[in-house]
Amino acid sequence: MADILKIGKYEFTSRLIVGSGKYPDFKTTYDATIASGAQMITVAVRRINITDPNQENLMDYFKESDVQLLPNSAGCTTAEEAITLFRMVREATGIDIIKLEIIGDTEKTLYPDVIETIKACEVLAKEGFTVMAYTNDDPIVAKKLENAGAAAVMPLAAPIGSGLGIQNRYNVVFVKEAVNVPVIVDAGVGCASDAAIAMELGADGVLTNTAIAQAKNPILMAEAMKHAVIAGRMSYLAGRIPKKPYATASSPSEGMIQF
Fold this sequence. Notes:
Elements: E1 5-7, E2 10-12, E3 16-19, H1 26-36, E4 40-44, H2 58-62, E5 68-72, H3 79-93, E6 97-100, H4 114-126, E7 130-135, H5 139-147, E8 152-155, H6 169-178, E9 184-186, H7 192-200, E10 205-208, H8 210-213, H9 218-238
Parallel strand pairs: 3-4, 3-10, 4-5, 6-7, 7-8, 9-10
Antiparallel strand pairs: 1-2
């Protein structure tokens, strides 16, 4: 049976979400996305055109595919800005599944402003948006976002674009235990093994952009991420052996031939 990822009213068979930033052109963005097997691609509405039909439009590249565009509010620093942006996006495109991203520190860490995020989430969820909320790796905040109506929470693994990988594995587990909505590890993934680790920890999905877009071979890295997410998910479902401080022989000592 297919291992379905359910986010609100939406269902996906891929647990990898990719971004659309930092690519040299829309064609490369499209090729890498298809290679990744992802069924969602985030789009920073303030930076990439999806609303003006008179300009080169990313939606044109994906209109014949099954890839869902996921508008995000990158560049917004207040709840009001994000709410206004998403209302305009839905009016222009009909898209109602969104990545809510409100940045508190725009100069150095790009960490989210969780207070503004919760405020915006409450309003947008009541207006019928399927909200996927980018946040820090704090289980308390994650639960507050779920209570505010988030359909998924997206804790960072490390600062956006850093490629540092998961800096606090325990917090990923704590967030997963705290909420009943999907947990998508977002930001900081640097290579395929980072994605596999996130999935082995129990994350429901992984979002990555820079690790693919700025790889020496984006198409190959996209495919690697695809397999890493699948392998990590299978490993998690299979259940790892417990860790032990000493060696354990693979073969039993009973019945050994005596010389």
